[in-house]
Amino acid sequence: MNVSIQEQTQSDKVTTLVVSGEVDAFTAPQLREKLMPLTRESREIYLDLSEVNYMDSTGLGVLIGAYKSLRVQGGRLVLVGMSPRLSRLLKITGLTEIIDIEDGA
């Protein structure tokens, strides 16, 4: 159960995090630790999930927390490159209605 998180800064206010591996109860704290400070520094965060092969409710909670934090500041969270399985999970939970999703990476 490993997760890898790489940060790519496009500009002062736009950041991309490339996440790979599994985002679950054991690894979600690592994602939260990397993502939440960025929600206070960036106007837009792109979360590239193309290499995420599993996410549980703890991972979804991290996404919701980041979304809320950015929204308060007028920012935007964008999920990119999701697998059909992850897309289905977000659709079932209704998150596709509130979080921006883009095809491709």
Task: Give an account of the 3D structure.
This protein has one domain (3-102): STAS domain (Transcription Regulator spoIIAA, 2-Layer Sandwich). It contains three helices and five strands; from the N terminus they run ββαβαβαβ. The chain has helices spanning 28-41, 57-72, 84-93, and strands at residues 3-9, 14-23, 44-55, 76-80, 100-102. A five-stranded mixed β-sheet has the order 1-2-3-4-5, with helices on one face. β3, α2 (57-72) and β4 form a beta-alpha-beta unit. α1 (28-41) runs parallel beside α2 (57-72). The protein is globular.
- Into which percentage range does the β-strand content fall? 35-45%
In angstroms, what is the radius of gyration?
12 Å
* Proper CATH architecture: 2-Layer Sandwich
The total of beta strands comes to: 5
What's the assembly state of these chains? single chain
Percent helix among the residues? 25-40%
CATH top level is Alpha Beta
The biggest beta sheet, please? 5 strands, mixed
Write the layout of secondary structure elements.
Elements: E1 3-9, E2 14-23, H1 28-41, E3 44-55, H2 57-72, E4 76-80, H3 84-93, E5 100-102
Parallel strand pairs: 2-3, 3-4, 4-5
Antiparallel strand pairs: 1-2
Helix pairs in contact: 1-2
